[in-house]
Amino acid sequence: MASYKRILLKLSGESLMGDKEFGLDPKMLQQYANDIKSIIDDGVQVAIVIGGGNIYRGMNENETGIERAQGDYMGMLATVINGIALQSIIEKVGIKTRLLTAIKMEQIAEPYIRRRAIRHLEKGRVVIFGAGTGNPYFTTDTAGSLRAVEIDADVILKGTRVNGIYTADPEKDPTATKYDTISFKEVISKNLKVMDMTAFTLCQENNLPIVVFDMNTPGNLKKIVSGENIGTVVS
């Protein structure tokens, strides 16, 4: 039995690079599609927000000459490219999808309408949210938190390259220990980097739990949804 009925899966753009330094790794796309299919088959409703850092990251205006707002819009377009790629691979494993974007581009995606997104989920379609919130100065973490609250998701599953939240960066500090559970207040007081503060506060105010886990290990997504103690739960 699945522990969650409806989830918001937050993926970083960098995770789609796999071992590459830029762009998309077909092996990672395929693994993600297989993992998502495994929980759809169990009746879980899945919405996805994906970043764009594998294609474009906002850069320092002083270095590039590109103002922050314009750079953020470029990043939003990168998330749509990732969304199209993920949509294509998920549909190849036999799952219906819908790509909804916060910036209108009717030829390739539906405009984001909350009630329509919920209806797609109820029909068993994977809903991919592209273009962030549609506004500059907000991250895809914030977009993920906002969409999760809007669609009344049970949880945000934040897929990363590490298997949870640690007392310090485990790649730099070998003595770092992992939290199985931690409160919103503890994350703030200990200044642990789970999400940006806007996204994190939105989850805290709406009592929306976050699970941080290693998405790059095949099968982890299904284990979490099945109730296994994978990753770190923030609540």
Number of domains: 1
- Tally of extended strands? 11
Fraction of helical residues = 25-40%
**Main β sheet profile:** 9 strands, mixed
- Shape verdict: globular
Distance between the termini: 22 Å
Helix/strand/pairing category: alpha/beta
Question: What string, H for helix and E for strand, traces the elements in order?
Answer: EHEHHEEHEHEEEEHHEHE
* Highest-level CATH class: Alpha Beta
Task: Give the uncertain stretches in residue-range form.
Answer: none
User: How many separate helices?
Assistant: 8
CATH topology: Carbamate kinase
Gyration radius over CA: 17 Å
Task: Explain what this protein looks like in three dimensions.
- This protein has helices at 26-40, 61-64, 68-92, 114-122, 140-150, 184-189, 197-205, 220-225, and strands at residues 6-11, 45-50, 97-101, 110-111, 126-130, 155-160, 165-166, 178-179, 181-182, 210-214, 232-234.
- It has 235 residues and is α/β, with parallel strands linked by helices.
- It has a single domain (6-234), classed as Carbamate kinase.
- The strands form two sheets. The chain has a nine-stranded mixed sheet with strand order 4-3-5-2-1-6-10-11-9, with helices on both faces. Strands 7-8 form a two-stranded antiparallel ribbon.
- The chain starts with 5 loop residues before the first strand and ends with a strand.
Topology readout:
Blueprint (H helix, E strand, L loop, with lengths): L5 E6 L14 H15 L4 E6 L10 H4 L3 H25 L4 E5 L8 E2 L2 H9 L3 E5 L9 H11 L4 E6 L4 E2 L11 E2 L1 E2 L1 H6 L7 H9 L4 E5 L5 H6 L6 E3 L1
Helix pairs in contact: 1-3, 5-7
